[in-house]
From TrEMBL:
This is PH domain-containing protein. One of its GO terms (molecular function) is guanyl-nucleotide exchange factor activity. InterPro entries: ARHGEF39 (IPR042987), DBL_dom_sf (IPR035899), DH_dom (IPR000219), PH-like_dom_sf (IPR011993), PH_domain (IPR001849). The chain crosses the membrane at residues 116-137.
């Protein structure tokens, strides 16, 4: 038997479902109309915007020249500010003009690069369908990024070169700085392991000996001892030779072999990964 109460409950459930379905249909129709209006508004605006960007893109090559020269221009400006008192006074007077709006000349030199990066962000977030404009802006932005990386790498190489005393040359075309740190060198004849500084580059591992603390602001100075080329180098972890935390790395070069120890397991793993990656990405012929 089916009671009147159960029939009434079933009807109420159906009514609720019909009401819910009607509300969802109405809401979806409203969203659809809003989206159509959005497409109409955005496409009208973006069509004009995109046309303007497409007309501007053929002139973006001027930014390439500016980007390639920005660090040299900044360096020349620093030299003149340091050596030329009259130029320093002239620069200060010009920057005091109201149209400078409290900006320095150094800040304004960076504005074209900042504008390109901003343009890329706007296009990426809003106008991703402008393929031509996106391609051109991305090319210049990539050039900016590459120049920044090259400049930062050059600064690292110069820093390491200043730390070294002696004939070991660090500055070289195509060389990239990777990392540095202290590692204990394990001698072959059972003597105590001695800590020495190692500098890892994209093509070599430089072993340096500390020459003492010269000055609190200058830090340590080093004497370059050995430069090991990474070409044909084999790096391996050696297990079971240290009772404490850490471990050993075995580096086999064509004309030498190194056994390096660290009591820090994480640091040792980082060295292993860095060395392995540098060796893996070496060009086949050098």
């Amino acid at each position: 038997k089916i009671s009147l109460g159960s029939i009434q409950e079933q009807r109420e459930r159906w009514d609720r479902k019909r009401s819910r379905t009607a509300r969802e249909l109405l809401q979806s129709e409203r969203r659809y109309c809003q989206q159509l209006e959005l497409v109409n508004t955005v496409c009208t605006f973006c069509g004009c915007f995109g046309l303007g960007f497409d007309q501007f893109c053929p002139h973006l090559h001027y930014y390439d020249t500016y980007v390639d020269n920005i660090y040299n221009a900044s360096k020349v400006l620093r030299i003149h500010l340091k050596k030329n008192k009259a130029f320093r006074r002239f620069k200060k007077l010009q920057e005091a003009r109201p149209e400078f709006n409290n900006h320095k000349l150094e800040d304004l030199l960076q504005r074209p690069i900042q504008q390109i990066i901003l343009s890329l962000s706007v296009l990426t977030l809003t106008f991703v369908f402008f393929v031509g404009a996106m391609t051109s802006i991305c090319a210049v932005s990539q050039r900016i990024y590459n120049n920044i990386q090259c400049h930062e790498n050059h600064l690292q190489l110069c820093r390491v070169q200043k730390l070294l005393k002696g004939g070991k040359k660090v500055l070289a075309k195509g060389r990239w700085y990777i990392r540095e740190g202290w590692l204990n060198v394990v001698p072959r004849k059972g003597a105590d392991a001695k800590p020495e500084m190692f500098f890892l580059f994209s093509d070599m591992l430089l072993q340096a000996k500390c020459r003492g603390l010269l000055h609190l602001t200058n830090g340590y100075k080093f004497a370059g001892q050995h430069a090991y080329p990474l070409q044909d180098c084999i790096v391996e972890k050696v297990f079971g030779h240290t009772r404490s935390q850490g471990g050993l790395l075995s580096l086999t070069f064509p004309k030498a072999k190194l056994l390096l120890m660290s009591s820090n397991q994480e640091d040792l793993n980082d060295w292993y990964q860095s060395l392995s990656s540098a060796i893996r990405y070496l060009p086949p012929f050098r």
